């Protein structure tokens, strides 16, 4: 019987829920992830898909299998540029010359073995025809930055604790297997054990 590890043990993917972009501008769709394991290009995989509506099927337009491959959808032409760095747990891309029809949902799927669970981030892109009015939000920015900084530290600490626990659990599992194997061999390892 194989018991599946709870999803929270899998990697975590961070992406903003909503991004606003001005028609005709370039926008970075940010997607980063946490993993207890180093990224190995041969095993790591990434898919970016696009959905024009919540019930529409997902269209794959960017993929990483040992290297980045752009699946040039007619929709985007050559306007998609991968601007992330998987080794730094960043799989973001930039969409140039944003069009009104680019509005929709962008899905970021990441798998970094030995993590068994695929991480998923979802971004809703809203395309604006004019810039929203600017208002003085210095206080809001300061408060937001403070809270954001604090949350980042908390998340980092939790990730470290989680990684340590996971590695300890794997070590325990390995030790259990070793103990079972040693039990089967009836102490062949040390001939003096029986005489003591």
Automatic annotation (TrEMBL):
<keyword id="KW-0472">Membrane</keyword>
<dbReference type="GO" id="GO:0005886">
    <property type="term" value="C:plasma membrane"/>
</dbReference>
<keyword id="KW-0732">Signal</keyword>
<dbReference type="InterPro" id="IPR036179">
    <property type="entry name" value="Ig-like_dom_sf"/>
</dbReference>
<dbReference type="InterPro" id="IPR013783">
    <property type="entry name" value="Ig-like_fold"/>
</dbReference>
<feature type="transmembrane region" description="Helical">
    <location>
        <begin position="139"/>
        <end position="161"/>
    </location>
</feature>
<dbReference type="InterPro" id="IPR003599">
    <property type="entry name" value="Ig_sub"/>
</dbReference>
<keyword id="KW-1133">Transmembrane helix</keyword>
<dbReference type="Pfam" id="PF07686">
    <property type="entry name" value="V-set"/>
</dbReference>
<keyword id="KW-0393">Immunoglobulin domain</keyword>
<keyword id="KW-0325">Glycoprotein</keyword>
<dbReference type="InterPro" id="IPR013106">
    <property type="entry name" value="Ig_V-set"/>
</dbReference>
<feature type="domain" description="Ig-like">
    <location>
        <begin position="7"/>
        <end position="124"/>
    </location>
</feature>
<dbReference type="InterPro" id="IPR007110">
    <property type="entry name" value="Ig-like_dom"/>
</dbReference>
<protein>
    <submittedName>
        <fullName>SCN2B protein</fullName>
    </submittedName>
</protein>
<feature type="region of interest" description="Disordered">
    <location>
        <begin position="169"/>
        <end position="196"/>
    </location>
</feature>
<dbReference type="InterPro" id="IPR000920">
    <property type="entry name" value="Myelin_P0-rel"/>
</dbReference>
<keyword id="KW-0812">Transmembrane</keyword>
<keyword id="KW-1015">Disulfide bond</keyword>
<feature type="compositionally biased region" description="Basic and acidic residues">
    <location>
        <begin position="173"/>
        <end position="196"/>
    </location>
</feature>
